[in-house]
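Session log. Operator J.P. requested a structure for one protein chain; no other inputs attached. Running the standard single-chain path with token output.
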Amino acid sequence: MEISPKGNTHFFSNNTILPVDRSSFKSESSASKENQSCCGGIKIFLGALSFVYFAKALSGSYLKSTITQIERRFDIPSSLVGVIDGSFEIGNLLIIILVSYFGAKLHRPRIIGAGCLIMSAGTFLIAMPQFFMGRYRYERFSSTINSTVSISPCLQDKSQAPLSALEKSQAKINAGCEKEAGSSMWIYVLLGNLLRGIGETPIQPLGITYIDDYAVEENAALYIGCVQTVAIIGPIFGFLLGSLCAKLYVDIGFVDLDSVTISPKDVQWVGAWWLGYLIAGVISLLASIPFWFLPKHLPKPESRKDSSTSSEHSKFIIEENKDQRTSYQQQAKLAEMAKFLPSLKNLFGNPVYILYLCASIIQFNSLIGMVTYKPKYIEQQYGQTSSKTNFVIGLINIPAVALGIFSGGLIMKKFRIGVFGAAKLSLGSSFFGYLLLLSLIAMGCENSDVAGLTVSYHGTKPMTDYEQALFSECNSGCSCSKNDWDPICGENGVTYVSACLAGCQASNGSGKNTVFFNCSCVGTFESSQSSSAVVGPCQKGNECPKMFLYFLVISVITSYTLSVGGTPGYILLLRCIKPHLKSFALGIYTLAIRVLAGIPAPVYFGVAIDTTCLQWGSKRCGGRGACRLYDSGALRYVYLGLTLVLGTVSIFFSVAVLWVLRKRSSPQDETLSANGERGACGTKSRKDNFVNSDQLIQSTYWPEKETRL
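Structure written below.
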């Protein structure tokens, strides 16, 4: 909406205490320049903010895509990976209250620029351990590495074996441990993610309110919708980047790739996880540049100059002469900052705000936990590689989320849905989304046949003591370790933890082409016709690819359904608070989500997933490493069951929101808004708490939703 020069002149003549003769000197050309500056400035800010949203969404989603890579590279359990993932939210926690409440009174563009620099530094720090912790070492029998020496995997006499094929000598173990004594490098990943959280904090509350303050009112929703649309592209590129890097070996450029004896299908495979963080860090660094050249304030459009509630800075409109402006503005700022506790009390005294906050906290617990470990679930449940998993999530799931968010906003606008309708739409979306999620429990794969873990060496179910079951009569004469994980696939279709535990007497070839012969345990299996085996685990059952296809279809529909309710829920949140508390309420909302959902959810989901592990890896210096094999059935019930339980609880809170709105609404409390819709907000009085819909942003924003599904 263009503002005429005459309108601009009229505003300044009426709203500024200046001598009458001075207003006559304001020419039409100067007013036109001011109008152009306003439009140009907000569009430049819009472009810069869109790029920042893209950058933060890309780095956040890339972290999700590298969860399993980090777990294997640093040899840590899922629970510890959950702590690393939650450190981002801890970074937000440290400063979000200050940024949300006081940041609106400072130079917002430069604060956002500084945040981008911190976010970039944190992203670079995450990648740094790769350059200091040495080359990645994985477990492999020596004959698969050196073809010039033929060694029997089943060592009848320990003197036959070179040192690397047996338990290493104490001297070598001590030497290795001295090297790795300072190699708890995952701490740097945690600290880097913490810095990312600190840097990302001002982007959302300050960026959105800056647009709301200086954009033409009817264009604000469009601008914020553009920001969110661009932000959705970030996770798509993040997961696609994760897919590309997962194909590349972790030490690419540092080792001869022909000497690598594992493939991306192996559970010990680690991709070039660090490469994506370097790329994401550069993008965040570039995103910070424009904000250092943007002004603290932009000229207000004419439609906003007469509004006392549309801008958080409107509380500082100066109606005194030039000499009195500085002292009056300072007093106004101090008075506003002193209202922190009353503002907090006002928010928590709003029942709709509190109930919706509780529903969101519990729902985000389920969504954050689900999305954090979704790549791991697909890899372990359906036997897919990390690269394919990330590709599928980035190319299929994320666009479904984007379409869902857009559809929610479109439905709100087309049918002119009010507050009560928004609450019903949000509830319906959650109900049907979790109902679809329930069907995924039936779409799983059976455990792979692993001798001594999921089946016995004779083809029957094993005893409950899995560790003792690894040893059998067929390998009793071998000197094997139960901690090694070097799987081979027998001709009978059964995976064996190692060639030694399979009782193999001879081998031929090298690297990935190694073939083992005379494997006594393979020959004793009920269905075996041969006693040979090859390097690597056997593939999942024939039904698993079909189940994976069904999973993808239902997963996409579920993502879309849950996302449809995001925009109505967010509009419900905004319409039940006072306009001048928008930034503060959004900050409190985001803080609660991150403290009570973002931090704990990955941790306790990881702890629950760890309970389904059948075989743990071992570190070089002793101690438990990363999990090598999960119980598929138990993993499915724990992962999906925990998500469904939390989702069900959140639905009950959403029903309570609907009940309060219905109870509080009455003919006296309903007000016809400018676009003809009706809305009612469950608050104590219409005068203090009801917000007309034309004073709020009709945004399609759902905090962190673009990186959560």
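Operator note: DSSP finds 26 helices and nine strands in the chain.
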